[in-house]
Design goal:
Layout: E1 9-22, E2 25-38, E3 42-46, H1 53-60, E4 69-78, E5 81-82, E6 99-102, H2 106-109, H3 116-127, H4 132-145, H5 151-154, H6 164-176, E7 182-186, H7 194-211, E8 214-219, H8 222-226, E9 231-236, E10 239-245, H9 246-251, H10 256-263, E11 313-317, E12 320-323, H11 331-334
Parallel strand pairs: 3-8, 3-9, 6-7, 7-8
Antiparallel strand pairs: 1-2, 1-4, 4-5, 9-10, 10-12, 11-12
Helix pairs in contact: 3-4, 4-6, 6-7
This protein binds iron/sulfur cluster.
Length: about 325
């Protein structure tokens, strides 16, 4: 059986930095993150609003609006080639064709004035060499695959004639219709009610396995990640603070922020004494952050050094990494620097 270690690396993000220039200062939305994604792997990127998770994925798609945003450093290697060096004219062959994205609200991506058939066929023809008739057949097949009943008739409907959950299914069908190798799903179920959320997440997982597509799932909810992702990156203030395979992360959450996120997930199998845990305080303003641990004002385990220096990344083994002074060997020596 292929494991993540033996599978081919599709995407490698190295020291990515995406900054935004504002009147108040420079927002370091993504500040030096690195991770890998293998074929067929599902990677969760988790964090609160403003942690940099969506900017990470917009950077991968080269969709950062400039100005005010700019990718100021790093590499994004897709099958070995740096996406950041690909000329704008060639980006279309990557977006949609090799890397697809589905957003929170399908109504922002679907054109309300065009039938689903028109939108799906156009997308397929843009990226694949086939006739209109073949593209229509493929579109119907994709709608069937994502569970749209009576797909032959429904394909000629407009987006508003579908429910929220069905629209998200249509978006998934469109995103996967060009056989993209990577699907980026940015909070794909936030706008849906709870029962539909579970169905959509199951659908993404099922299709990813069937089509051997790698998935990057962006979410603020570590509960969503548990049953779906192979690996997890936890982001805080533009940096990855903990990275591990999902089972390892749940068994040994090491960063106090990850620990807080896991404790905030409602559990049916554990008594909560009527009160759900929440991490105190607010995420920091990422404009001109001081060079210390940005989580320290909210951390119950902070030490003096945490308020002075950014923690080193410590390898805990089995691919588990954490950026926290609690695990650094040289913390006493470093305090005086
Ligand atoms: Fe808490 Fe210090 Fe670790 Fe930051 S580095 S999470 S403040 S213990």
């Amino acid at each position: 059986m292929e494991t993540n270690e033996t599978r081919k690396t599709l995407l490698e993000v190295k020291d990515l930095r995406t900054y935004f220039k504002t009147d108040a200062g420079v927002v370091k939305a993504v500040d030096g993150i690195s991770f890998k994604l293998s074929q067929g792997e599902t990677l969760g990127i988790v964090g609160e609003s403003g942690s940099g998770k969506s900017v990470t994925n917009l950077s991968i798609m080269r969709l950062i609006q400039s100005p005010p945003g700019k990718i100021v450093g790093g590499e994004i290697l897709f099958e070995g080639d740096d996406i950041l060096k690909v000329p704008e004219s060639e980006l279309r062959s990557i977006r949609g064709n090799k890397i697809s994205m589905i957003f929170q609200d399908p109504m922002t991506s679907l054109n309300p004035f065009l039938k689903i058939s028109t939108q799906m066929v156009e997308t397929i023809l843009l990226h694949q060499d086939m006739s209109k008739k073949e593209a229509l057949k493929k579109s119907i097949d994709m709608l069937k695959l994502v569970g749209i009943p009576a797909a032959e008739e429904r394909i000629h409907s407009y987006p508003h004639q579908f429910s929220g959950g069905m629209r998200q299914r249509v978006m998934i069908a469109m995103a996967l219709s060009c056989e993209a190798k990577i699907l980026i799903a940015d909070e794909p179920t936030t706008a849906l009610d709870v029962t539909i959320q579970a169905q959509i997440l199951e659908l993404i997982q099922e299709l990813a396995q069937k089509l051997d597509t790698a998935v990057i799932l962006i979410t603020h909810d570590l509960g969503v990640v548990a049953g779906l992702c192979d690996t997890v990156c936890v982001m805080y203030a533009g940096k990855i603070v903990e990275k591990a395979n999902t089972d390892e992360l749940y068994a040994r959450p090491s960063h106090p922020y990850t620990d807080g996120l896991i404790k905030s997930v409602p559990r049916l199998d554990k008594a909560q004494n009527g009160k759900l845990f929440s991490i105190e305080g607010q995420p920091p303003n990422v404009i001109d952050l001081p060079p210390c641990c940005p989580f320290h004002p909210r951390c119950s385990r902070k030490m003096e050094i945490c308020t002075k220096q950014y923690p080193p990344v410590v390898d805990l083994g089995k691919g588990h990494e954490v950026a926290c002074w609690l695990y650094a060997e040289n913390k006493e020596n470093s305090t005086d620097e």
